[in-house]
Amino acid sequence: MSRTLQTVHRPRYTGQTRLISTTAPLQKSALPLPDDDDLPANATTSTPFLLADIGEGISEVELLQWHVAPGEAVSQFDRVCEVQSDKASVEITSRYDGVVESLCGEVGEMMYVGKPLLYIATEGGVGGGTDIGGGGEGEPQAEAGQPATLHNVDDEEDRLSVPSAGSNYASHVQSADEKSDSNDSASEGKAKVLTSPAVRKLGKENGIDLSTVQGTGPQGRVLKADVLKIINANSSATDDPPTSAAASLASAPSVATPSRLEEDEVIPVRGYHRLMVKSMTASLQVPHMVYADEINVDALTSVRDSLRPVAKDLGVTKLTYLPFFVKAASLAMNEYPALNATIDVDEMTLTHHQAHNIGVAVDTARGLAVPVVRNCQERSVLEIAAEMGRLFALAAEGNLSEGDIGRPTFTLSNIGAIGGTYMSPVVLPPQVAIGAMGKIQRLPRFVSDDSDEVVAARIMPISWGGDHRAIDGATMARFGNLWKSYVENPSSMMFAMR
To answer: Which residue of the set 53, 158, 181, 472 is catalytic?
Structure first.
C-alpha cells in the first residue's frame, strides 16, 4: 500500500547568514520555521546543503563536477560533488538523507563557504539529526545557558575526502549502487564532463555534445584541442574535394599549426593558478637576492645510472637527478639552517625549522603545483624518489591534498627539464630561499686551472634566490658551495648522512 508524501516548504535560504556563538545560549531562530513536532511524519522539508569550511582560510572553491542530479535519492556520506580549492581537490559527501531538489551551481563556477551547494528534500525535517536554527530528531534542544552547537558543519572531516593516487574522475563519478535509471544516467553523464567553461562555450557554439568527446587531458578532461579537432574534422568533411595540387599537399607530412583565437577569451583564474597569483603577489614584498653557479654532474650521472636497476627492483621505476638534488639540499641545511626557515615580519621573528619539508615545483595541466617532500632529513635518496613519484602522480591527476602541499620550508624548481639556463627564482613567502636547476648541457671545460686540456662535461646551471631580510650573500654562497660539493661528488653524501 503506497502512501502520499505531504510537502511542507520552509523559506528558501537567502544567503544572509547569522553567526551563532558556540558558547552563547541558543537563541530561537528568526526564521518562521514550523516545529518538527507539528509536521506530519511523512512530510518533506527543503533543506539547504551549505558548503562548510574546508580549512586553511579558504573561502571559495571551483566546482569541478556533480555526482548527483535533481530527483536523485541521496543518503548520508554519499558523494555529492567535487570541488577544487587553491591547493587541492576535495570530494564532498552528503550530510542528509533525502532527494536532491536543485543544484546551486554549474561546473566551473565558484562556490562560497557558508552558501548553499544544493537543496535536498528531507523527510520529517532535516536528516541525520542536523538542522539550521534548531535541533533535529534525536538531538535534544539546548537549554538556556547551555552552549549551542552549529550542526551544519559538524564532523566535516568525515565528509571531505581527497581522491587517492591512481584514481580517475571516471571512477569517482560512478555511484556506489550504479544507478540504473537510463534517463538519470544520461543527465548524470552530461553533468560529469570534466572541462573548463571556455571549452563548454566553444562546444555549445559549434553544436558539439561534450559528453561524446574523448578527452585527452588528465583523467579524461576535455581540452580545447579536443573540441577544435572535431570542429576541423567537420569543416573538412564539408569542403570540396581537393585539387591535384591540394591533394599533393594533403599527402605531405602534417605540420602542427598553432591555434589562433578568433576573439578575446576570458579565462577564470582557478585552482593552482589562483594560489600562484596570491603567492607571487606576496613575493613583491620580498627584497630578493640571486646567487648563481654551474655544476658538473658527470659523477652524479654515473651514480644515478648504476643505481637505476636497483631502484627499479625496489619499486622506483624511474630514478632521476631530482632526489639527489633534494637530499643534497637537506644535508647542506644541516650546516646552514638559516635557509630552512620562515620569516614573520609582523612579529619580527625567524623560525629555523627542524623538519626539512622541501617543496618541488612541478608543471601540470592544471598549472604549477608544489608538492612537499616532508622530513627529507630522515629519508634516503631512494625514499625521497619514491615519495616524489607518489606526489607527482597525484599532481598530474589534480588530486593533491592539503597535507601534500602545505607548509613547505624550502623549495626547488627543476625548470631545466623544460629548458633555460640561469633563472631569477622567486621566493615563496614566508619561506626565505629557493633553488632553480637549469638545463643540463654537454659543454667544453678545462680539466683544471693549470691545464690547457679541454674535455666534454655535463654542466647544469643552478640559481639560488633568497630573502635578503633573512639571508646574506655570504651564507647563501657557502650553502651553495656545500650543495655543489655533494652533487659533484655524490659519494661524499654518505659521510654526512646519519
So the answer is: 472
Grid cell in block for residue 395: 599532481
CA atoms within 13 A on the CB side of 88: 23
CB atoms within 10 A of CB 384: 23
Active-site entry in 273, 288, 353, 468: 468
Backbone angles phi, psi at 483, to 5 degrees: -60, -40
Is pLDDT above 60 for 30?
Answer: no
Residue keyed to cell 579536443? 226
DSSP state of 495: H
Cβ–Cβ < 8 Å for 8, 43: yes
Pick 140 or 488 by higher pLDDT: 488
- Note the pTM of the prediction, 2 decimals: 0.56
Residue whose C-alpha is closest to residue 196's, from 24, 22, 365:
365
DSSP states along 240-273: PPP-HHHHHHHHSPP-------SS-------HHH
Whether 468 is a known active-site residue: answer yes
Yes or no: say if 59 and 111 are a contact pair by the CB < 8 Å rule: no
Share of the chain above pLDDT 70, in %: 69
* CA–CA separation, 253 and 56 (whole Å): 52
Rg (Cα) of the chain, in Å, rounded?
A: 28
C-alpha 173 chain-centroid distance: 18
- Judge whether 208 and 193 are in contact, CB under 8 Å: no
| pLDDT value at residue 275 | 72
